């Protein structure tokens, strides 16, 4: 029979019934399978497959619910709670959430996962035998990742960040591609487990990808145009700037180059959203 050890899926025999469930045995040790953790009907003498974990009293107990992960087996788990003095808790598909210790998280709390983020984890035990989440290492990600095709270049891509370094962030995409986001290709550093979207700027020989979180040039023009419109709306639909304005004035007011300003303004005029008159720009009234 299987060894009774928390964190594993094992097969045990139903030894006897109890008022609140049944006791399972491997021939030398017993463990409780509470009635709330039983799926279907089971009988004394029957072999059942269960997952072993610790209850709130830190006793090993069993459930017939199958978790997403176990010792030596990795999977995605969603963050369901954050406690700054402990770490973050993830849902692994059973009634008890799994703690990923603060010792395994960034020293910068703003880079910790938030509720709703996803971590790729397995299970480990601490010195007292308690279950904890084990974050996947780069070696693990290399084993589970797929090699990206050359056609991935310049495509949109979405994934979850699994590793943080000073020089950049690593993510695994929805397709299973390993991606690197250099610090120069992002406005801010994403959190561990955060879901981010970007575009592929390089496909490496080993099938990994370099990704930028900055928008494409044409998308950037749209962002600049929105900023200009927002500024004008805050000034009753007019501004003392046009495509003839001095570059320094544009940079100081909008934080963008004269070229970017002219492209955005030209796009707005082409769409007939604004017009220029005597060095001023006005929002077109509908």
Automatic annotation (TrEMBL):
Residues 5-65, 70-136, 152-214 form the S1 motif domain. It holds the Pfam family CvfB_1st. GO terms for molecular function: nucleic acid binding. It comes from the Bacteria. Belongs to the CvfB family. This is S1 motif domain-containing protein. It comes from Priestia endophytica.
